[in-house]
Model the fold of this input.
Amino acid sequence: MSKSTDAATLYRALRDGLLRSVLKKSRAHTEANSASCAISQNGNRYMGAKIESDTHLLDVGSEHVALLSAVQHLDFHIQEVVTLVDGDSASVSPLTLKVLADFGARTGRVPAYRVLNRSGRTVFHARNAAKEISFYRPSLRVFAVLPKTPKKNWHDLSASEMPKTILKTYASRGLGLAFPTYAGASSYGAAVVTTSKRIYFAGQYSAPDKRLGLHAEMSAIIAALMAGEKGITHLGLVSDKFEGKPCTLCGCCRQFIAELSEKFGWKVAIHCFAKSTTAHRVYTIDSLLPYAWSSKKWQ
Done:
């Protein structure tokens, strides 16, 4: 494939990726939508789109989502992240540069970073994103062993597989996809079942800047959304911090699920498991967060 053809294919994929974004319903600001692609040394491409939150505190940039997708496939060999901004120009967020720098500190290679405007013209390019914020030096160690073979993070359910009986199995597999900031850190794994009868599983994406961490529940939901799924029926959660009793969701994950449930009309059965016993509890998001905040205008 020629470079020109490859560039055109990437541009089309990024344009399509804009349709995967989850934008705030009451969107009144003018910040442009964006989609990103993390490109691996082996040629694999991992797409990411912007996830906006009603609170804004839970916003996730498309670059972060693209790297999350690569990590959840155990592909740490990302050489470049390319972002398409649906506008004529673009500003580069320091938070995005920090995400790229953090990724490089753990994998031994900081990705190049390129931003395109809506016409496909390059408006920003850095061969090493970390050098753009040289004052930021995350205290992270390079992973001792990086997997060489990417793996899929989903499974199609057979007619005999019931969500409530396999959620723990796949949430536990999500533990193996956690992206910690140090060896021995506690891990969370999550799995979600979609209306298409596919199960997606993920681990948390930790960050030295805690503002930029993505919890396992968020990661599994984002994996489903980036695959084009719109309906989620079940969510399972497990943690190695909770060996004998069921784990539970933190406040930000409750808000994140509540917002998306309102946006897409989900009625999610949330299963919280103990890692080493059969103990588990089932909740709805309304029972976990009965007074969720919303940007909806009430009359």
